[in-house]
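Retro notes
What went well: the complex prediction finally ran end to end.
Inputs used:
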Amino acid sequence: MKQAVYPDISDILERKAEGRRVLAKLSFVEKVERMEALRERLGPVSKRKAINKIARSVE
Amino acid sequence: MRMQETIEVLNRVVEARVISRYAITGAVAAYNYIEASLTEDLDILVSFDDGANDPSTGLVSLGPVVNYLDGLGYRDWHKEGLVIGGWPVQFLPVAGDLDAEALDQALDVQLEVSPGRFVPTRIVRPEHLVAIALKVARLKDLTRVESFFAENAFDLSELCAILERHGLTVHLRRFCDQTGISNPCALSCKL
């Protein structure tokens, strides 16, 4: 049986870990600002989810 | 930062003696120590002067703070949170010795909201955040605990002492069993 060969992604995982470390070092205010921006972007998605939930409950 | 308004309003609530003091807790408090995670609301640990307690029932009423904020024009609710500065704020009255200690020992911080402009607030210490999360133990709380461990973002001996003091060592042991990590308090705490 042919053995599947997968790429070594340890460098990608290490970059992700480094990214998390960088994000963790941001100040409290910087983190809040990033989260507020993210909430803003996700606002339409949250609204749509709420509308769908209501629609499902009345079906 | 929209939360500037939230914090300034909370400071007004304290100045007006509607609450005696407060500290940011939960996911937003964790921003002070670990990588931020998305959250909908802002948890605020509060203590009231005796006037808010009903001695006949032992219940604490949020009525005074809700009425005061209503007077300032804040009357929109999102789920259980009163929206202030765009953030649904959940007021969590001190409900035990761990909460009382967390509020008492919270860090006084000055947030630089714009260059040279600071707003004072209080944030629960990381060791108390971990202890509270272990006690509540929902999946998202335990995920936060894992982040604190992964980022080595608390004082271990202080956490072990808090867990011991509040009878929560079993909660840490359970967390360690579930996650497969060795119990870091095992050497310094009697488990």
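What we learned: The interface with chain A takes residues 1-3, 28, 31-32, 34-36, 38-40, 86, 109, 111-113, 123, 151, 153 of chain B (CB under 8 Å).
What to try next: split runs per interface for comparison.
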